[in-house]
Amino acid sequence: MPQVTVESVESVGERTVALELRTPDGFDAAPGQFLLVRATVDGVEETGYYTLSSPDAEGRMEVTVEYVPEGTLAPWLAERSPGDTVEIEGPFGDVRYTGEGSAVVLAEGPGIGPAVGIAERARAGDHDATVVFWGQDPPHRNRLDALEADGATVMVVESLDEATDAIAADDDATVYVFGFESFVRDAKTVAEAVGIDDLRAESFGPR
Known about the structure:
This protein is of the alpha/beta class. It is built from five helices and eleven strands; from the N terminus they run βββββαββαβαβαβαβ. It has helices at residues 73-78, 112-124, 141-149, 164-168, 181-193, and strands at 3-13, 16-22, 34-41, 44-51, 60-66, 85-92, 103-108, 129-134, 153-157, 174-179, 199-203. The strands form two sheets. A six-stranded antiparallel sheet has the order 4-3-6-1-2-5. A five-stranded parallel sheet has the order 9-8-7-10-11, with helices on both faces. Strand 7 (103-108), helix 2 and strand 8 (129-134) form a beta-alpha-beta unit. The longest helix is centred in the middle third of the chain and has 13 residues, at 112-124. The protein starts with a strand and ends with a strand.
């Protein structure tokens, strides 16, 4: 359970920060995988799972943290400063993008983190990338704009039904889903309706 150094904490949206961590020696992870973060907050040990939102983990890696004022670990992480340390375990998860082929990523809330990480890695390998965010005012707007300028498709929708053409556009693309239980359920329904059975989904649990 290595202690890792916080390199930066950046606000990337409403009650959402990007927490950049120094990658420990011998550690490797791909976007889509997640870390367990452990810390003592007000004398109580707290743990949480956060999905990698950087395109790789070379030297530094990033997780996207959404927090609410009444939370414990997430607000504490949002208040960290460069040079602080946190304890991590992992990586965990079979849902990951290793740079092979086109990717379509459906996301809500903090799921936009792994979505941009996967899309950036896909574009770096000259593969097509599509990001569909359900909601309004997605975090990581600057990175989404840069992806769009680089040729990726970026959609912000109020209903996943608006994105059926984009989801089905590339038969060879792998489709990823990151979000809370109800969103993952809806995404599977929409994908199946357009003939996609093989989804790689990571649920963040109930909202």
